[in-house]
Design brief:
The chain is an alpha/beta fold and 130 residues long. The chain has one domain: Roll (2,3-Dihydroxybiphenyl 1,2-Dioxygenase, domain 1). The chain has three helices and eight strands. Strand 2 and strand 3 form a beta hairpin. The chain is globular and about 45 Å long. The termini are far apart.
């Protein structure tokens, strides 16, 4: 018997304005998207390098709670990358809002975080041991 394999994942973020949020991720973080769903738009699937991030607009913005506000520092989404310094440089040139500066962590990762329009922090890291 074969075992099914997970072939992808897509974190979902609740946002105040899906169109503005999608444009921010496109213009500042280099993601792309094909379309919005809903009339008026309320959902979008972003992608970069075969990884996905879903955005869902909510009417009640009190439901938007970035994790670091609830936990004192946890990121909302974490992506591993093959060259974190190059990505940091790219995003800095796009004038993205840096939430956590590029640094080496004691657990063996070089990482940084960006903040989006809803104050979520999206982190990008590279394993220093590989």
């Amino acid at each position: 018997m074969t075992t099914a394999k997970i072939i992808g994942s897509a974190p979902v973020l609740l946002v105040a304005d899906v169109v503005e949020a999608a444009h921010y991720y496109r213009d500042k973080a280099g993601f792309t998207f094909d379309r919005f769903w809903g009339d008026p738009p309320c959902f979008c699937i972003l992608r970069r390098d075969n990884f996905h991030l879903m955005l869902r607009e909510v009417d009640d913005t009190s439901m938007i709670v970035p994790r670091r506000k609830a936990t004192g520092g946890l990121w909302d989404v974490y992506f591993w990358v093959d060259d974190v310094a190059a990505l940091f440089s790219e995003l800095e040139k796009r004038n993205v809002r840096i939430g956590s500066p590029l640094c080496d962590q004691p657990y063996g990762c070089r990482e940084f975080g960006i903040r989006d329009l809803d104050d979520y922090e999206i982190a990008f890291g590279q394993d220093l041991e590989t």
